[in-house]
Amino acid sequence: MPIIFVILVEGRSLDEKRALTRGITDAAVEALKVDPGEVRVILRNIAREDFANGGVLKCDQSLPAGK
């Protein structure tokens, strides 16, 4: 049974998470030849103030349009 962990910076919608987990599950089913019910996807959200890119906290960076 594959278990796939995904870490996201908070702020994604429920529909985005649904689409992501569906896509990951579909890819695992195809690549690993397992049933969809065997695939576990665990989403972990982290706060924007707990993640930095290039030495700048995400909370201090501009948000892309629509986010």
Give a short summary of the structure.
The protein is of the alpha+beta class. It is built from 1 helix and 4 strands, in the order βαβββ.
Describe the structure using short key phrases.
alpha+beta, two-stranded parallel ribbon, two-stranded antiparallel sheet
| Strand segment count | 4
Give Rg in angstroms.
Answer: 15 Å
Distance, first to last CA: 33 Å
Strand order of the largest sheet: 1-2
| Uncertain ranges | none
- Secondary structure tally, helices: 1
Report on the biggest sheet.
Answer: 2 strands, parallel
- Note the run of SSEs as H and E: EHEEE
Overall pLDDT score = 93
Helix proportion of residues, in percent? 25-40%
Strand content: 25-35%
Structural class: alpha+beta
Shape assignment: elongated
Describe the structure.
- The protein is an alpha+beta fold.
- The chain is built from one helix and four strands.
- The chain has one helix spanning 14-32, and strands spanning 3-9, 40-46, 52-53, 56-57.
- A two-stranded parallel ribbon has the order 1-2. The protein has a two-stranded antiparallel ribbon with strand order 3-4.
- The longest helix is centred in the middle third of the chain and has 19 residues, at 14-32.
